[in-house]
Design brief:
heterodimer; A: mainly alpha; B: Rossmann fold; Alpha-Beta Plaits; 2 domains; about 25% strand
Chain lengths: ~270, ~325
Amino acid sequence: MTAVNLVIADAAVIAKRNVIKIKRVPDVLVFVLISPIMFVLLFAYVFGNSIDIPGSNYREFLIAGIFAQTVMFGATFTGAGIAEDMQKGIIDRFRSLPMSRSAVLAGRTISDVIYNVLSLAIMAVTGLLVGWRIRGSILDAALGFALLLLFAYAISWIMALIALFVPSPEVINNASFIVIFPMTFVANTFVPSESLPGPLKAFAEWNPVSTVTQAARELFGNIPAGTPEPTAWPLQHPVLYTMFWVVGIVAVFAPIAVKRYEKANTK
Amino acid sequence: MPATPAVQASGLTKRYGDLTALDGLDLTVPEGSVLGLLGPNGAGKTTAVSILTTLLQPDEGSATIAGADLATEPQLVRERIGLSGQYAAVDEVLTGFENLDMIGRLYRLGKQRSRDRARELLERFDLVDAGDRPVKTYSGGMRRRLDLAGALVAEPPVLFLDEPTTGLDPRSRIELWGVIRELVGRGATLLLTTQYLEEADQLADEILVIDHGRELARGTSDELKTQLGGERIEVTVDSPESIDAARAVLAGVAVGDVEVNVATRTLLAPIAGGVGSLSAALREFESRTIAVSDIGLRRPTLDDVFLTLTGSVPEPADSTPDPDQPTTEPEEVLS
């Protein structure tokens, strides 16, 4: 077997282990599935009636933003999972085995995509119930979901690195709030970026959370005809710009995280 | 390479800021033998094992394990070792079978071989009935057995057991000793760390006593005891007033200084004449009517060795080391 095949085989073993754990500890899954429902309902009914975007249906505008925010929070599971493995010493076991050095992190980030697939499915159904519709082609919509998943996958490598430095699930959960809330609020997720004040507007326009949201909106056909074309380049090319970030984040954070894993002695 | 030891390390050094966890430690484990690395908490035992199992990089020093160089061929080292840690590193949510199967896959034994091996080991470690239950339902002893089984999955030539029985109740400890003895009987090469003297005495061919990351002594259990000297008479007198008289009696048969512990009214005298010296002392006590509540011949235990070498009694498993703390001396020892 080639080196790449070995990484894939080892990562698959780790991913399988994580999937067994998801099945055996269903309470985690319950919260994974309830919180997106809560987000959709809260935003749809609390803000949905008070925020008015001319020429648009706010609920429809909102759904892609909630999707983006929720999959970003999904990356927290990667951090929490790695932190737990560090605390319990099982990382030492893995590190003493002749397995591929990147497999533990690769397997973890891959298996955590499952959380996001499930929460996207639940949110989509809830969204449909409150009036959200896919108005483009099914293929485009599928691309939209795929882009959200890729983006979340990239973020989970950042969380993996944080967890290797701060191996405490509690700290990871709090730290991710501090990072993810500003990232997802200073964006066009819940309000149009044009309405933000100067510096925040610039940040929002170049924020990849905005562009993944914008891309999903476009691909779901949730941008009504007559909406003015965005002026910032990233928002004009949201798929391309988001993919730059996805590739960039993985290219930078995956090697650093693997390096860190190699030295991650827990004792 | 028949003459090459299974584990050979020299000058292992690891520093954490001002703290030197390992200070130029050398060790050798001949093939098929058991080296007991003995030391109090914080002596550097786990650091040594972490380095030898590739988990930690030493600041200085080198090692070869089963013919593979630690620094340049770490992946080869990993193929040839099995590690069982102080904190049973098995996944609590997975079953015993799933844990062993996963380890087999990661040693790249292949699907079928991993499964077969997992079943074999569950059987051998008396875990068949528990094999399909999540590990979190296991007792401490069962977890340790599973963890040890995990180290054996790929039948590696060299095993590292880091405090395999720390925290276990006496029954589970004796059970695990049985398992380890069986491994040794099959010719495994083993490096075992422990803070229990009895464990080193029971299991190790050679003992390396370390503290503050440095070697204090090495040898077989008997050699270490001999180093400390031969037999002694231990006497406990009935009343504190007889201590001086008793000391005078013992001085007559002793070959060195008589140790006196006033608090326990116990006297300890090194002798050379064995039972003869004992009965001579006994006759003297009788003729001088010194009431003795206990008298006997005592051979040094490994505890004595440890006490002499480190100046402290080994600590219980759950206490934390404090390098700045003065070592505890036996109370009021006069000599």
